[in-house]
Amino acid sequence: TTQNSNIQVWDHVGGANQWRTAVINKRPFRTDDYNALDGAGTRDDLNGSVPASFHLAKKIQEETGKLVRLVYAIGDGQTISTWFTTTKQKYLDSILLRSAAAGVTKYDLMIWAQGESDGATAEATYQTRFDSILATLRRQTYFPVTTPVVISGLAQVSQGATSGFAAKDSTLQKYDYSTDQWLSYAAIDGL
User: Fold this and answer.
1) What is the tens place of the pLDDT at every residue in 5-25?
2) Quick one: pLDDT band at residue 89, thresholds 50, 70, 90?
3) Strands 3-11 vs 183-186: parallel, antiparallel or unpaired
4) Cα gap 157→68, rounded to integer Å
């Protein structure tokens, strides 16, 4: 199913700023000329991968029977450095602003699905940047330290990816052994 009225996504496109039924072939999921960060572009059709977050939200909704809401940030082909205010994209600022505009009072779960463009990023650098992002989020009243964070693994060639991400995926897997009990890793086929 591509649509479920009990799964909503925050739509910030063109100043819409409203919750709407999540449909995988409509914005704010990825399209050819739509930038999910700033809402640029006008096309509504999906032309790319279906986000794992939609499928996980669908599973959670089916299991609990509760309304599930997604606040979404995506930037295909971007490195982790694009989450910081010193870069052009500023994904971290974007998610903070969207959370406020959407009236989020508490996040129940965060899915981190990023890393495919970080093959050249040193492991220590990636970990420092991710830890900084997580620390910033946890300073927000709506994101308590007890908010579970699931780090999604990267698809491997054996799972249909066009190139292997084994090295970066091993960096992500190490978070499963973190001293932070609210942080875990899940293989992409487990989401």
Assistant:
1) 899 988 877 677 889 888 776
2) low
3) unpaired
4) 31
- Can you say whether the dihedral through the CA atoms of 114, 44, 67, 188 is positive or negative? negative
Kindly report the backbone phi and psi dihedral angles of residue 25, in degrees, each rounded to the nearest multiple of 5, phi listed first: -105, 20
The conformation of residue 155, written as its DSSP 8-state character, comes to: P
Burial of residue 51 (CB within 10 Å: 0-12, 13-18, 19+) is: buried
Backbone phi, then psi, for 124, in 5-degree steps? -65, -40
- Please report, for residues 42, 46, 75, 161, the alpha-carbon distance to residue 32 in angstroms, rounded to integers and kept in the order given: 10, 7, 12, 20
Distances from the Cα of 139 to the Cα of 42, 58, 87, 106, 135, angstroms = 34, 28, 21, 12, 6
- The CA–CA distances, whole Å, from 162 to 67, 155, 165, 172, 189 equal 35, 9, 10, 19, 16
Tokens 């999910």 locate to: 36
